[in-house]
TrEMBL record:
Gene3D superfamilies in the cross-refs: 3.40.630.30
Annotated ranges, domain N-acetyltransferase: 4-148
InterPro entries tied to this protein: Acyl_CoA_acyltransferase, GNAT_dom
Protein name: N-acetyltransferase domain-containing protein
Native source organism of the sequence: Kouleothrix aurantiaca
CDD domains, alphabetized: NAT_SF
GO molecular function, one term: acyltransferase activity, transferring groups other than amino-acyl groups
Highest taxon, organism lineage: Bacteria
Source lineage: Bacteria, Bacillati, Chloroflexota, Chloroflexia, Chloroflexales
Amino acid sequence: MGTLMVQAGTVASDADVETLRQIRNSGRQWMTRSTAEISPEQQAAWWTQRNARTCRVWLFRIADTAVGYGLLRLEHARWWCSLAVLPRFQGQGYGRAIYTYLACACDGDTWAEILADNRPSIRACLGAGFDLHAVLDQHALLVYRRNA
Ligand SMILES: CC(C)(COP(=O)(O)OP(=O)(O)OC[C@H]1O[C@@H](n2cnc3c(N)ncnc32)[C@H](O)[C@@H]1OP(=O)(O)O)[C@@H](O)C(=O)NCCC(=O)NCCS
């Protein structure tokens, strides 16, 4: 992943599932679906019922420190990205690296739904090679796509 020294790892333990929850909650106001706080119990239940084929998740670490996560969800035959970087690690290129990693992990095109006022996410995804695909005015939602 370039010179950033950030490593993608699978979510393998209960501690990883909890780390994933904390990173997701740190950026929850920018999520395009549910922005609700996720409790440890909700997170554990979600993880148990997750379909690993249609919902793929990675934690991104520098040495042993988790700085962000990336998730790919197969929905209506499209792979959709979801990601967050912990606030103290933002603005250092990790978001762009995670978008790039997710796009490379997909067989086909990769899709991202981003709120129109989420400038860091838009810049990170453009930097990773995505292009604007559609504007859904009603929700101030922009849809980006990176071709395979
Ligand atoms: C979106 C997010 C993952 C980006 O992670 P990041 O590590 O900060 O991303 P990067 O450092 O790779 O890139 C951020 C880009 O936004 C720019 N940026 C950073 N903060 C900014 C701000 N407040 N306003 C405008 N641009 C900003 C950076 O300059 C950089 O652009 P550049 O590559 O053209 O220089 C991170 O901000 C985050 O977790 N946000 C909360 C959750 C979220 O929004 N997730 C995505 C939902 S679609």
